[in-house]
Amino acid sequence: MALKNVIGIDHAVVMVKDLDKAAENYRQLGFTISPRGTHSAHMGTGNYTIMFDPDYMELLGVLVATEHNAPARAFVERHGEGIERIAFTAVDSAAGAEEIRARGLTPIGPTDFERPVTLPDGTISAAKFRTFMWPTAEAPGGVRIFACQHKTRETVWIPELMKHANAARRIKQTLIATPEPAKDAAHLGRLIDREPKAEADGAVTVPSGGERADFVYLTLDQLGKRYPGVPLAGLSERGGAALVLVSGDLAATEKALGSAAVRSGTAICVPPAKANGTLLAFIAG
Description:
Number of helices: 6
Mean pLDDT: 95
Structural class: alpha+beta
Radius of gyration: 18 Å
Largest sheet: 8 strands, mixed
CATH topology of the largest domain: 2,3-Dihydroxybiphenyl 1,2-Dioxygenase, domain 1
CATH superfamily of the largest domain: 2,3-Dihydroxybiphenyl 1,2-Dioxygenase, domain 1
Organism: Bradyrhizobium huanghuaihaiense
CATH architecture of the largest domain: Roll
Number of domains: 2
Domain VOC: 8-150
Shape: globular
InterPro entries: Glyas_Bleomycin-R_OHBP_Dase (IPR029068), Glyoxalase-like_dom (IPR025870), VOC_core (IPR037523)
Protein name: Glyoxalase-like protein
Distance between the termini: 31 Å
Helix content: 10-25%
Number of strands: 16
C-alpha cells in the first residue's frame, strides 16, 4: 500500500556553506532566485528557493547551530556542499507521520515553522510549513528524506519566481551516487512503498509518485558514463547527487549558463564544482 499522505518529490535541498554566495552563483547560472528567507529560531537556517512547476530547489545554509540542524552541519563537514536531503509533498504531515509510524518507523516531527516572504508588490507575508522526517539513520544512498506540507502555497509558488533565463521548468530525476544502487533503491522503496526498477546500465530507478521526479541510484562510474566529458570532482561515491532538469529551450539554457556549460550528448551540464556540489543536467522537455 502506497503512502496516502505523501506524494512525489517536492524539492531538493542543496546544503551550502555561504548562503549569499551560493545564491549569487545560481543567479549567474540563469536561475531566478527568491528573496532570502530566515526560518523559525529552532531551525537555525536560512534559504533561497528556485521555483519550478510542480517542484523546486532550495539553497539552505546554517545561520545558527541548533539541535535541529546538527545532521545538516555533519553532512557539510563530511561531504562539503551538495544535495543533503529530498522532500516529498505531504498532503497532511501529521497523518503522514502516523503512516510511517504504523510501518515501524519513528518519525521526527511533525514540526511547524515559517519564514517571512516579501511578495512582488512589496508587502510582507509568511510561508508556513509542517514537516516530518524519516529517522535520520534512514538515508538511502546517504541522502535523507522528509515530507513537507505547504500551508501557504501562494507565498512559495510565486509566478514571478518561476521564470528562469536558463529555461529550467522542473526536476525530471534526482540521481544519487552509491556503491550499491540496488540495495539503496530497495531501501528507499521500502520507506515510501514504491517498486524499484533496474535500468539497462545497472542503475535502479524508484518512482517518487504523483508523476513527480524519479530517484535514480547509480555508481559514480555509471553517472560518469551517463554524462561523458563532465568533471565530477567534488561528488562523493556515496551521497553525491545530481539533478536532471527539464529545459523549455536548450539554446537559452546554454546561453544563460555561459562558460559553466558543458555539452554532454543531448544534455547541457554544469559540473558540481560550479554548482555548489551538485551536478546539474538540463535536457529538452
